[in-house]
Amino acid sequence: MDKNMACVEEHPHTRAVVQAINQHQQPSDYMLNHEIYTEKELHDVKITHKKFESWHDRLAYAAVRALRLVFDVFTGYMHVPTPSERNSTKAIQHTHTTMTEQQWLRRFIFLESVAGVPGMVGGMSRHMKSLRTMRRDYGWIHTLLSEAENERMHLLTFLELRQPGWLFRGFVLLGQGAFFNAFFLTYLISPRVCHRFVGFLEEEAVITYTRCIEDVDAGRLPAWSNLPAPQIAKTYWRLPENSMMRDVLLAVRADEANHREVNHTLADVGPNAPNPFVVQTKRQTDRSTAERH
Fold first, then answer.
1. Which of 25, 84, 139, 245 lies in disulfide reach of 227, CB 3.0 to 4.6 Å?
2. Which residues touch 112 (CB under 8 Å, ≥6 apart)?
3. pLDDT tens across 113-138, in order?
4. 4 pLDDT exceeds 60?
5. Which residues are annotated as a binding site for Fe cation?
6. Distances (CA, A) of 242 to 205, 228, 246
7. DSSP conformation letters of 152-194
8. One-character DSSP codes across 186-247
């Protein structure tokens, strides 16, 4: 066993992970690429909504609203309408009961346990298509798998604050099973609709985290006002050592806003186009290389 372990440790791709495990630390360089935000980027996130351009968009949005209703009922989600909502004639006024820290965590954990599904399903589907058609994928797989891992890290972060019971885990199992299969079948038929669906879903996620941050700022969540950020969050988002729970919420919201833009863009370009984010990154790299020379 020791001999086999020594061979593993000599492998350059596993040496850092093995070392971190031996030191009981979170390995930091095995993760897929993800965004690290500046202070300005964290606070510049806005609630947006993409206008409908086709019946596909309306179908995707209707599915998101139906799914959100299920989430709201299951997690007991209620919120204080924002000033813009109160002034809007189209606003739906909600009866309000203040959400506690535990209620927010229940919502976040359930939401993130499902939010990690689309990226994995999309990446897996495109991987299998690339294998059977014997063609390149042009950069989509990595982006989608990175998104799935990012959502999983959200879940692991919130699990540092609460461990759900067996009943909650049972509902997660049922919800994940139903959503995985439905999303997979839909992705085989229309990847464009699926990415638009995820784009709209991330719009709702940005709204949810924005309202939670507003609750923290308004003093409605006193237990989180001075709660230090979990270590896993500091490592993953490279947050300062004195970061608080509010900083974690800002980082998670920024991730959701990023997923919102990525999936709406992937829906716009269509499944047969190269990943525009990979192309953009390559151009920036080539430009930087040319400037150095």
1. 245
2. 151, 152, 154, 155, 158
3. 999 999 999 999 999 999 999 999 98
4. no
5. 112, 151, 154, 202, 256, 259
6. 26, 7, 11
7. HHHHHHHHTT----HHHHHHHHHHHHHHHHHHHHHHHH-HHHH
8. HHHH-HHHHHHHHHHHHHHHHHHHHHHHHHHHTTS-HHHHTPBPPHHHHHHHT--TT-BHHH
